[in-house]
Every structure is written in C-alpha cells, then in structure tokens.
C-alpha cells in the first residue's frame, strides 16, 4: 500500500504557509540587549507571534522581555511575572485596562528591527530559497554567527 502524502502537514512541518504577502514563513527571534540573536523559531506565515512567545523565553534566563504589541497577552504577562521577568510590552490600543510599562526602555525595541534588517541583507534569508525548514534554520544560524563575529 503506498504511503499517503499530506500536503498540509508537510507544509506545516517545513514552516511554510499562507500570509498576506503570499506563501512564506515567519522567523521568531530572541535577542539580547544589544540586538544579537540568541534563539530562532520558524513557523508558517499565518501563525500569530504570541503562539511562540513562551517557547522562545522558556529556556533562557531573562530579567526583562521587550516585545511589541503582538505579544500583548495576559497569559504571557502572567507567565513572565511568575518567573520574575519584567514584561516591557505595550498594551494594544483596544485594551480595557492598559498595562503600565517602561516607555524609556521600550525605545530599545528598534534593536530587534535592526537585527531583522541585518539578516535581510542575505538574499538566501529574505527570499527563502531553502525548501526544508532545517536547511533554512541552519543558514539563519550561520548568519547569526556572522553578525556575532562582526
């Protein structure tokens, strides 16, 4: 009996999916205070940022987590506070009870955006030529090494 190939699970396993920009993947990254990468996760393009937040921070000792509004969730904030990690995450514009956060420290969020700008100088990253997620992740780690070694 031939093996059935499931297109949906294969695309999910390779971190590919439909998003507004087309068929793509999403890179979730944890950086240090200077914008150097510590950890990567790949998901399909339509996956929300908040779904990978706990997985990113679970194995790394942190004092604070600086993230954008896409990571605003009571579940994540409670998870961070249980581990004595200060959440520096602004509340969404439609929040009933906006959370207080350190606006001065939040201005360092541009370092994360600068990191994404640095990795997109590599054509193989921004175009995702690799079909397999493990190959793409390996190249992301190679680019991270190049950025760390500057």
Q: In summary, what is this structure?
A:
This protein is α+β, with helices and mostly antiparallel strands and 150 residues long. Helix content is 37%, strand content 18%.
Could you explain the architecture of this structure?
The chain has a single domain (7-148), classed as Nucleotidyltransferase, domain 5, CATH 3.30.420. Helices cover 37% and strands 18% of the residues. It has 7 helices and 5 strands, in the order αβββαβαβαααα. It has helices at 7-13, 53-57, 74-82, 103-106, 110-119, 123-126, 133-148, and strands at 17-19, 22-31, 37-44, 64-66, 86-88. The strands form 2 sheets. Strands 1-2-3 form a 3-stranded antiparallel beta sheet. A two-stranded parallel ribbon has the order 4-5. It starts with 6 loop residues before the first helix and ends with a helix.
């Amino acid at each position: 009996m031939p093996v059935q190939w499931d297109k949906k699970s294969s695309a999910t396993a390779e971190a590919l999916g439909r998003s507004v920009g087309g068929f793509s993947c999403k890179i979730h990254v944890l950086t240090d205070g200077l914008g150097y990468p510590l950890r990567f996760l790949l998901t399909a393009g339509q996956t929300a940022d908040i779904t990978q937040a706990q997985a990113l921070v679970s194995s790394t000792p942190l004092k604070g987590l600086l993230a954008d509004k896409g990571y605003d969730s009571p579940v994540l904030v409670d998870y961070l506070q249980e581990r004595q990690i200060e959440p520096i995450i602004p509340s969404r514009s439609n929040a009933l009870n906006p959370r207080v956060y350190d606006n001065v420290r939040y201005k360092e969020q541009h370092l994360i955006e600068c990191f994404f700008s640095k990795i997109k100088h590599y054509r193989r990253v921004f175009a995702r030529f690799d079909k397999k997620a493990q190959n793409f992740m390996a190249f992301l780690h190679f680019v991270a090494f190049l950025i760390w070694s500057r």
